[in-house]
Design brief:
It is built from 15 helices and 23 strands. By secondary structure, the protein is of the alpha+beta class. The protein is elongated. InterPro entries: CBS_dom (IPR000644), CBS_dom_sf (IPR046342), Diverse_CBS-Domain (IPR051257), DRTGG (IPR010766), HotDog_dom_sf (IPR029069), Ser_kin/Pase_Hpr-like_N_sf (IPR028979), Thioestr_dom (IPR006683), Tscrpt_reg_HTH_GntR (IPR000524).
Amino acid sequence: MATKHEQIIQHIISLDVGNKISVRQIAKNLNVSEGTAYRAIKEAENQGLVSTIERVGTVRIERKRKENFERLTFAEVINIVDGQVLGGREGLHKTLNKFVIGAMQLDAMMRYTEADSLLIVGNRVKAHELALNEGAAVLITGGFDTEDHIKKLADEKQLPIISTSYDTFTVAAMINRAIYDQLIKKEIVFVGDIFTPSDEAFSLTAKDTVKRWYELNERSTHTRFPVLDEKKRVIGIVTSKDIIGKDSELLIEKVMTKNPIVVQSKTSLAYVAHMMVWEGIEVVPVVDQSSVLQGIVSRQDVIKALQQIQRQPQIGETIDDIVSSNMVEVGEEEAAYQAKVIPQMTNQLGTLSNGVFTSLVTEASSRMLAHVKKGELVVENITVYFIKPVPIDSSLTIKPKLLEAGRIYAKIDVEVFNERKLVGKALLMAQIMDR
């Protein structure tokens, strides 16, 4: 019989995606203590079954498989940006495919906004309405609210509309970082990410007959099945070699191999792949610490996962990466670099974000120092003397000038121009690390 903890986990799994979950309700429905309910909900959160959001509560979400790790649910976005839900709570479990920076004209913005995307925009009520009608959620930056009819529309569409106090650049950087972190994690794939759950897997009991093996073989095309006792624990394995020439009415317990090779959900994909090749195994049971069957992992599961890893990018792209890739060297006699202001670099007003300005200053200084001193720059302090509004699509020229340089120390003056007009000036002090 399953423990109370396991019963709660199974109850949570049975709930529809989007349902709210409370400790008190779980304790009442399943007749368990609130402490037991709380621990089980935390375990469900660790398993990716639920997400807890401040001021909203705990929500049942869809468990993400590894191939979807570059996507986030709107519930996760709220936690990342410390946001507040203004409307559309019923859609918090949904997954966003991409996000769009709303720092352009409405018609241009709508060309990029599509269903299941997230529009990051400031206090532009018309943009909020258009995005929701296109099937996109909305993240309002700068701490702004929206109008009541927009909140009502979000509820009707079941699309979250979220408010955060951060500016657009910071929010985009935070979301990019979250995706980047998950892409790093995806390099280590575990059995729990790819296995077929027990309710979808074929298995035998000790009191089944060999005839039952033939039935499962015809339905699944597998030749290897786990054997379970009355508590769903794996006690053996039966393969085609075990049943050849045996009477069809012979009990499985008479032909099974005891103490079979099993794995747990935290076993790495690399280990399972190696073991399957080395041992010539087609299917391996996945068990918990009590040997209760959780599912199976097949050779097809492993091959599919390995192919998926090869198709995925090996690194994520942060805002700093975007700034770096968007910068080109143009100076001949003196160090100078150009960068175009693209939507990802703007704040809620559609002008160059302060955060991007410091990234541009740091990147240009780093490149100049690498060329002059053959060393890497570690920033200690940046003083921004002034920065003027720079609109989207502007072409900036960044000119770093080395004022002082020792063996391990450098002071760099940086000027930023837009069409030969000085729009920003900063002083950077840094340590130099030899390559």
